[in-house]
Amino acid sequence: MISNQPLTAIATLSLLASGTTSCDARKASLFRAHHPSGFEMLTQGMDDFVLDWNSNSDYHRNVLEYFNRQYKCAHLCADRNRAIRESSIAKGHVEFIREPVNTNDVAHHTVKVQLPGVDPKDIKVDVVGDILSIEASRQWTKELLPEIDEESEKCNCEDLASTLLGKTDTLSRRLRLPSSVDKDKISVEWNKSETEMLISLPEKEPEVLSIKILEVERPKEVEAPGKRPPEVDVHNTDEQTGLSRP
Question: Is pLDDT above 70 for 188?
Fold first, then answer.
């Protein structure tokens, strides 16, 4: 178990700075002996932690409020940084959609890519062999960062925003195309209002093979005169071989 030395140091320094009496020092000793360490207080939450002595002491209440504030701010700052990382276009969702078609229509596919804050001039789409390559870039600005809430602002979080502003955010994806896609008919559209790119991937039209029917006339077989097939006596035949018995 992690020791309570950090909490002890804080309590001791606070007592010395405030000129406390020996009675207050004794209370600080009781605090160290009967309560969890600073690490346990942070991980278990401060709201459920109740002092069992002198609950009216402003000093002890201030200590608990301080740790409670630090605990909540640690979570708020972590959530803030997580939201910033998730807002990167590198984490953007690339969706492959197969349009429903009738049996007589040609199948069609669409690739949808969300690219907020990206200029269409900074987007590159290539097809090399059966690989569809998508690349895009943008510059980090304050407008692209998630909005900070009031509680996080009070915590003075040292978030990732200060290190990202002015730097380049990039997206790079590689998709393998079905062999049935007609590469010559691939098209790309940019939806400005939705800040999304749509890549149309129509499939090849099915090849139709017409098979010619040949008319042929085959001569009928004519039996030679005077030759008849040997007659078989059905009443005097071997059941296994079908041959006439002698």
Answer: yes
